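Students often ask why we bother predicting the structure of a whole assembly rather than each chain alone. The short answer is interfaces. A chain on its own may look different once its partners are present, and contacts between molecules only exist in the joint model. In this exercise we take two input lines together and write out one structure for the complete complex. Read the inputs first and try to guess which parts will touch.
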Amino acid sequence: MKTTLEIDDALYREVKALSALTGRKMKDLVTEGLRHVLNPPPVKVSGEGEAAALAELRHWFKATDKAMTKASSGPGVRELLEADRRRLEAP
Amino acid sequence: MKPVVLDASVVLAATEVADVFHAESRRFLEFLVTRGVPVRVPAFGLTEIACALARRLRDPVKARSLAIRGLAAVRAVEVPVDAAFLAHATLIGTRDFLRGADALYAAAAEVSGGVLVSWDGEHRSRAKALSPTEWMVANLG
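Now the answer. The structure tokens for the assembled complex follow.
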């Protein structure tokens, strides 16, 4: 359904920036926020947080592996960073 | 344990198998999360990581997503780059003859009471940074 909401200006700007950065629609972010309010995640016991973080990290490793298979040949990503950092130091 | 201030070079090395520091970077990041080591990154770090990935992948959306997800996975907390922080970075950068961008990382380490961990030789020679390998040796005992 459609509705009208009043949102704090600063909060709106932050969410708008997140939307632009991630490519996710505003309506999806608002929906996720409302679901979070209705069903907050349970407090994690010691050790569970680290296990979840490790799983998330390994998932990210797989995502980067997949993304890099589509990269064309050329300087590596860290080499690009180093070149950016040093380009003004060349004589 | 003291916070680790993570340089973009470590995150980026972890993304690419062909990088000479790839395996060691992944081992280090796994070490951080399994030990619950607090991680800090100057807000500028996200920009550096995302832009380097975008140039490598030629895919801006994927690059932004991977950069955000990578820092979230290691539970990185952003150090805001505001006027007070920049003043501190200026002090440190001029004192230690750093490049401007490097001063941001060095200042993040000082402000957070942490250790800068980086593959960047300039960080290690001038900004008291440790490589991931050196950091793990020091903290594994």
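Check your guess against this: Residues 43-57 of chain B form the longest helix (15 residues).
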